[in-house]
Amino acid sequence: MKKATIILLAVLVGTCSRSPGTLEEILESGELRIITRYDPTTYFSGADGHEGPEYLLVEGFTKFLSEKYSREVTAEYITKDRFNEILPALDSGEAHIAAAGLTITDDRKELVAFGPSYQDVKQYLVYKLNTGKPNEIEDLRGKRLEIMAGSSYAKTLAELQEQHPDFAWSENPSAEITDLLDAVQHKRIDYTVADSTAYYVHRYYMPELRPAIILKEGDKLAWAFEKYSSEDIREEAEEYFAAIKESGELERIIERYYGHTDRFDYVGTRRFINDFKQGFEQYKSKFIMAGDSSGIDWRILAAIGYQESHWNPDAVSPTGVRGLMMLTRTTASVMGVANREDAAESIPAGAEYFAQLKSRLSLIPEPDRTWFALAAYNVGFSHLQDARLITRRLDKNPDSWLDVKEALPLLAKRQWYSEVPNGYARGWEPVRYVNNVRTYYEILNFLTFDEEELAEPLEQPETAPLQTALEEPEQIPI
Questions:
Q1: Rounded to an integer, what distance in angstroms lies between the CA atom of residue 234 and that of residue 344?
Q2: Which class for 392: exposed (0-12), middle (13-18), buried (19 or more C-beta within 10 A)?
Q3: Do residues 287 and 301 touch, judged by C-beta distance below 8 A?
Q4: Which ranges of 100-152 does DSSP label H, i.e. alpha helix?
């Protein structure tokens, strides 16, 4: 009897012992598991590795934890193909945090716990230009409106439907926001709903999309945590976000992807000419020397420098790319650059790197070879090769820029990026990048024609006006 009592007490002690909290588990294992999704507003593979707003926030959080507890913590990213798979996976214990551009809603609070909000967004009803702009909910009658399954838009539309029962909508269980916006662009559906951040990013390569109605304002994005055992790690996240808000780092990350930062302020001809007259002369000889040593037309190099930094030697991005030619740390190391913010080092290194990219494309005739090298300078050589592979699969010419530039945006679509070696990429960016550099090049030809023999144009830009990164938003009725 006494022995049985001892055994029973041992069992009770064992069952009452404290399970390790989420924070303790992370610190012991050194691994922070993150559920996210491939999307230009969350997480993707860039020219120098992973990036995206959620990626930068998570990497900052792992650094915060590592420094605070003197334990190395690294992030393991688990991606889900569909938005509606994220919260169930978190609830099942697959990861510690869901960092995927999630909106805080009352329904989701029943399943998970949210950390502090880090960004406000609006819900836009999106339509295609020249198809008839809907100005009020009554205009949606008889139209095809599809949204992402599992998104917060369903509740917004359900509430509107109570007041306007004559319009219908559906949730697409297999489509992400890129797919639905593309369906609107090509008139397969009439409308979809997208967060303002997603709209502004995707309109770069879907230029005919427009926001018609603001369906909802004040939505807040936040990380999601397991509902009942994550209080400790949520407290750390609250401290972390408070710190990066105070330091301005959060604002810099948001501007990096959505705002009017220097890096993404692709301005018009007037500002370019003004910058040329006021600030270019101090760098001109360096571009000419770099052109002579690399065999690259110095005007192309100067156009790259303007596109990258507006000829600002102190330019820096949150991902660590910096200097007038915006060299990554890896590229600078390979090129022997000690100080990326020294234009005397950055310009010739950027020129040599660009020349090396061209040499890897030696079988492609000009001018396409130059356009390919520009695209690779922006998005990375491996992603360019993926786009050429897709071009070949589409029975088009992988050595033709006109064909490959149509394939590059497909790297943002799951059905395509899942079939190539290097995965997701913001494929519309190199297309815009090449168009802008070509335009700057032609302007430089014009501005320098009286100084020396006019350089032979490589090819007329297909789009005369520059494509701006984030134009002033249209007036949108509520």
A1: 46
A2: middle
A3: yes
A4: 106-109
The tens-digit pLDDT sequence of the chain (478 residues) is: 444 444 333 433 343 433 457 899 999 999 999 999 998 889 987 655 788 899 999 999 999 999 999 999 999 999 998 888 999 999 999 999 999 999 999 999 999 999 999 999 999 999 998 999 999 999 999 999 999 998 999 999 999 988 888 888 999 998 989 899 999 999 999 999 999 999 988 876 677 889 999 999 999 999 999 998 899 999 999 999 999 999 888 987 886 677 533 333 434 666 788 889 888 999 999 999 999 999 999 999 999 999 999 999 998 876 678 999 999 888 888 889 999 999 999 999 999 999 999 999 999 988 889 999 999 999 999 999 999 999 999 999 999 998 999 999 999 999 999 999 999 999 999 998 998 898 888 788 777 865 554 444 454 444 333 333 333 333 343 3
Which stretches does DSSP call E strand in 379-449? Answer: none
Determine contact, residues 190/210, Cβ cutoff 8 Å: no
The full DSSP string for 138-188 is: GGGTT--BEEETTSTHHHHHHHHHHH-TT---EEETT--HHHHHHHHHTTS
| Residue 128 near residue 135, CB atoms below 8 Å | no
Q: Number of helices (H) and strands (E) in the chain: give both, helices first.
A: 20, 11
* Tokens, residue 43: 């997480």
Half-sphere exposure of 311 (CA within 13 A, CB side): 22
Is 472 a catalytic site residue? no
Which domains does the chain show, CATH number per domain? 20-114+225-258 (3.40.190.10), 120-221 (3.40.190.10), 262-447 (1.10.530.10)
The number of angstroms, rounded, from the C-alpha of 323 to the middle of its chain's C-alpha atoms is 21
The conformation of residue 344, written as its DSSP 8-state character, comes to: H
Q: Which of 51, 146, 236, 308 is catalytic?
A: 308
Q: Return the closest-CA partner of residue 351 out of 279, 297, 281.
A: 297
Reading the block at residue 404, the tokens are 């490959």
Amino acid, single-letter form, for residue 183: A
Query: How buried is 363 (Cβ within 10 angstroms: 0-12 exposed, 13-18 middle, 19+ buried)?
Result: exposed
Amino acid at 63: K
